[in-house]
Amino acid sequence: xxxxxxxxxxxxxxxxxxxxxxxxxxxxxxxxxxxxxxxxxxxxxxxxxxxxxxxxxxxxxxxxxxxxxxxxxxxxxxxxxxxxxxxxxxxxxxxxxxxxxxxxxxxxxxxxxxxxxxxxxxxxxxxxxxxxxxxxxxxxxxxxxxxxxxxxxxxxxxxxxxxxxxxxxxxxxxxxxxxxxxxxxxxxxxxxxxxxxxxxxxxxxxxxxxxxxxxxxxxxxxxxxxxxxxxxxxxxxxxxxxxxxxxxxxxxxxxxxxxxxxxxxxxxxxxxxxxxxxxxxxxxxxxxxxxxxxxx
Length: 296
Prior knowledge:
- The protein has about 300 residues and is mainly beta.
- It contains three helices and 20 strands.
- The chain is elongated.
């Protein structure tokens, strides 16, 4: 049995393996998946001396505890949280050397929701369709971790991390989501579009890796009936029958029949991954940029 492995002592509420996901398979009904807070996952890998796309652990709310079978370098980023090594305080947001057999405890998030744990060599579970990510919707990839799970690790990189510590943005007190209206904004009344752009919403406790659900004023339809199922994209703001906007995240379905009133700009989605229930949400419509065409 290889000593390049990680034993899960405590799995926590929901800890999954994530990398940069499996884009390009929507025609097969397979979502992109991958780390919800991609910048935090990439930073954890950098601090641990891994390539950007190495697989990490994504924890939810209450962290996890891990015991490596050989000495490794670990970095924890994302939601600020206490980190302990054999019961003693260790650094968050910086490389930590963990001896073989020691227990690294990633505590509950102080702010935000999801922490990212990178281990030198990366988590080396078998890839599915080119990715090691757990997909909660389709069931692809490794199952969410449970106590006692043993995760294989890849060989550590020859080059050590080129950074000892790096600044990270904290979880936002208010989630501001820039959106481009469409493709089905014509299914809603002018008043609904005004409400979306001007009224406050809050993050619902029913949110998960599939989508960020909101609480707030319902958006009124201009048309009755339903659409035939059509393709869905990351960041799509779908409006189900209750009228409350739902923002699709990494494990979203690839098709849907409820109208999409807008699409969130990709750069704003990592903040959505860290928004706790009750966080105020504001949708800010941004006009499409006009593209100048030079006549030849």
